[in-house]
Design brief:
alpha+beta, D-amino Acid Aminotransferase, Chain A, domain 1, D-amino Acid Aminotransferase, Chain A, domain 2, 2 domains, six-stranded antiparallel sheet, about 25% strand, globular, disordered N terminus
Length: about 300
């Protein structure tokens, strides 16, 4: 949540945010102290990659946003076409060529009470962040490390809520352990997903496996586009165990922030040959091509 007068990190001069109908200097952007996104994490969010000035996978991100809001009984802050205009304007005002657009919709401001009412007006927040695409490509070429942690999240991970404390703790612990990501493992020993990614493995016969969607799995946009793009890559949507992941030929992650990202170790154990494999590389190429094609439509 963006708050003014912070003593921590300040935004670079010239960075612009959108909050509740206003484009405002990022460092001055704020929400009311009784906004329900701040008080209760009563809000949802999306992260859209921007490549070459183009918003990637925009349509499925907005479809998922509308679904998340509907599941929580929050209305869309504006119609999708208007929201697209806001996204492009935030990108334009931030001179964003390569990076990410973060959009959050809270239930709005109200006197603190757990129960929500129909009288609340949703608040839209949009911010932009630049990235160096070469840094992501370098990480993809090297592959990343994953560690595992017991599943301890709520039962509706299919809603992209900002109530992310277990994810935050898992990702923080992963970084302390020298890893890029944490995979949650349920009580039956099956991998669910990462703290901010969907999890995949590749079997001995070359099939890419990712967990089937359910209430405990986020329907990742990059995951869905990669599945549609798969073409000559055999796909299985099913649960896979941690033991199966340890002995997989390959493993990888999917997310808006990283595309298809190879995993080379899990809990310190080398995956396959301990380097990015051909299935992840092929799926990344197919995903990239379809995503770019659809973003131009």
């Amino acid at each position: 949540m963006m708050m003014s007068h912070s003593r921590g990190h300040r935004a670079p001069p010239g960075r612009i945010a959108y909050v509740g109908g206003r484009y405002i200097a990022h460092g001055e952007a704020s929400v009311h102290i009784e906004d329900r996104g701040l008080q209760f994490a009563d809000s949802v969010y999306e992260v859209c990659a921007v490549q070459g000035g183009r918003v990637m996978d925009e349509a499925p991100h907005l479809v998922r946003l509308e679904r998340s809001l509907s599941e929580l009984g929050i209305s869309m802050p504006m119609v999708p076409d208007a929201l697209k205009i806001v996204l492009r304007e935030v990108a334009r005002r931030n001179y964003l060529r390569d990076g990410f657009l973060y959009l959050q919709v809270t239930r709005g401001e109200a006197t603190r009470d757990h129960a929500a009412t129909d009288a609340m007006h949703p608040l839209l927040i949009v911010t932009a962040k630049r990235i160096d695409p070469k840094a992501i490509e370098k990480r993809r070429a090297a592959g990343v490390a994953v560690v595992t942690t017991p599943e301890n999240r709520w039962g509706r991970c299919d809603i992209k809520s900002t109530a992310l404390l277990p994810n935050v703790l898992a990702k923080t612990d992963a970084k302390k352990r020298g890893a890029y990501e944490a995979w949650f493992v349920d009580a039956n020993g099956f991998v669910t997903e990462g703290s901010s990614t969907n999890a995949w493995i590749v079997t001995a016969d070359g099939h890419a496996v990712t967990r089937a969607l359910h209430d405990n799995i986020l329907p990742g946009v990059t995951r869905s586009v990669a599945l549609r793009a798969a073409a000559d890559v055999a796909i299985e949507e099913r649960a896979f165990s941690l033991e199966e992941a340890y002995t997989a030929r390959e493993a990888f992650l999917t997310s808006a922030t990283g595309g298809v990202m190879p995993v080379i170790t899990i809990d310190g154990r080398k995956v396959g040959e301990g380097k990015p494999g051909p299935v992840a590389a092929r799926l990344q190429a197919l995903y990239r091509d379809l995503s770019q094609k659809e973003s131009m439509a």
